[in-house]
Automatic annotation (TrEMBL):
GO terms for molecular function: flavin adenine dinucleotide binding; N,N-dimethylaniline monooxygenase activity; NADP binding. InterPro entries: FAD-binding_MO (IPR051820), FAD/NAD-bd_sf (IPR036188), Flavin_mOase-like (IPR020946). Coiled coil: none annotated. Its cofactor is FAD. Keywords: FAD, Flavoprotein, Monooxygenase, Oxidoreductase. The keyword Metal-binding does not apply. This is Monooxygenase. It comes from the Eukaryota.
Amino acid sequence: MGIRIEKKASTEVDYDVIVVGAGISGINCAYRLQTETPDAKIAIFEARGDVGGTWDLFKYPGVRSDSDLFTYGFAWEPWPYSTPIAEGDLIVSYMKDCIKKYDLGKYLNFHHRVRSCDWSSAGQRWTVEMESEGRIKTLTSRFVVMGSGYYNYESPLESDVPGLENFRGRVIHPQFWPADYDHAGQNMVVIGSGATAMTLIPNLAKTARHVTMLQRSPSYVVSIPNVGRPKTWAETLLPRRAALAWQRWFLMTFQWCVVLMCRHFPNFARAEFMKLVVASLPDGFAHDPHFTPRYTPWQQRVCVTPDGDLQKALGGPKPRAEVVTAHIRTVTEHGIELEGSRGGKGGDSTATTTLDDVDVIVTATGLRMDFIGGIPVTVDGGGRIDWSTRRCWHSAMLSDVPNLFFMIGYVDASWTAGADATAWILTRVYRHMRKQGVTSATPRVGARDAARLRDRRFWNLASNYREAADKGLPRYGDVAPWKPRDAPPRDLIYAKWGNVTRGLHFGVA
């Protein structure tokens, strides 16, 4: 069936704000707009058929947040459950409850995939082209907010696994886990050592014949109490909503202090993290080499295991899972040949050179990063913007691109805290523009800032997927307002009360 083109005859702007994506960033943004700018006409367009974003897409066994939900949840409707780590289905259910409670569903438009956005300087508006049910629609808006995430929903990061094409068994990427797949009784190898692998191993081990986590290098893995977590003093003494609000701010501040410690006292931080790692491992399980990273904490993300479920799967007289630290020489028809491997419980155990009789290989090797979901953006019909040539303004807008906001979270704190800071800045800029009677706001690097700006990377992690995407990502500077966010409590205070007009140039239709 061909695609039909619908052309709009009206010259009026359809919306004041179009939000792309109905994940946690888009829903949070809609709430802030509804509350802070009630006169704005807004709409959310979502390519999929439901809310949730990441949590609606990922369906692999046990998929869960690797951030605590007390800070990952919405500030305006605190996470209502006692478990700080929760699986994807419960997160989606929580989001739907929030949407219903605050009547945000009226903004939602599903099965609308944004194909391009073009800014018109003459019309002072965005033209957004999207596909829905085989038709191409064009809508106009004063502002566009990209809550579409940071990775490619359609294509994963290609796995750099030599000889993978030789394998006769099944190869699965967690991003596209088959809905009808039963892994019971299978001998499985999960390649990777990040949050996805940490989630998969204990969940697969419940019914699989055996599961091996095959890693090239280890990550920091910290166990936290989840089910049956003891109540804090605030939960005991304060009204429930006040206790949850206090808990959110305490955790946000505490996590920030931990990150500061890791930045300024890396050796001390490494020693303290290793104490936690060693304490969480089963008796007799040597932490070296499988749980001794070569880097200091927060050069890559720290992995969290609720109630030590990964560590428990590795322990006992008959462990359901094991860790092998090695480089892959090649994948064969029914196994994996390794170089420099250490298996079993680590330490003095016998080295493993081959993983035999493998039924399934799971490539948990990362996501393909795609800034603002890979949506082509142009200005006045020009060429597609190369984001690597742009600088980030307050982690919310991009140099020389008018009225475009993007949602990005933290790498060392909860995503939602960063997205909420952007939402606050958006509402304040919107109100300022309405008050001043202007129609566009464009971040521009002035001559004074340009002379002293030095590049800072978009995402300060050493992860493989971040390195692979580096050339296509925008840059930060080291001078405000071009510096990255790096302190959630302070950033949120600034977003609500700080100067959000510096570096902006305003225009009129």
